[in-house]
Specification:
Blueprint (H helix, E strand, L loop, with lengths): L1 H37 L2 H23 L8 H14 L13
């Protein structure tokens, strides 16, 4: 009986977490679609890449040394910065990373 309640609580917590992530991702996706339609996505990417790199470095420094090479959030932001640096054809934009 107790084990069933614990598993139900864990399942509920997982559902709430995934639901929250979906609710956060939908507006970000909508903004990206609107910016792409208006032709402003490239300009936003140029501004967002340095910010994503800076936040990734900050999260990595705050996490301290670990075997995996930093926090999962820092790794996700570094991956996002690499994607933002990409020009869409698999080549880094000129001046990216400075």
């Amino acid at each position: 009986m107790i084990m069933e309640q614990v598993l139900n609580l864990l399942l509920l917590r997982f559902g709430l977490l995934v639901g929250g992530l979906v609710i956060l991702a939908l507006p970000v996706f909508a903004v990206a679609v609107v910016l792409r339609r208006r032709g402003k996505l490239g300009e936003v990417r140029r501004y967002a890449a340095p910010a994503a790199r800076a936040v990734g470095r900050r999260l990595e420094a705050r996490g301290g040394p670990s075997r995996s090479g930093g926090s999962p959030a820092g790794a996700a932001l570094r991956a996002a910065a690499r994607l933002l640096d990409d020009d869409g054809r698999g080549k880094p934009e000129r001046g990216a990373g400075r």
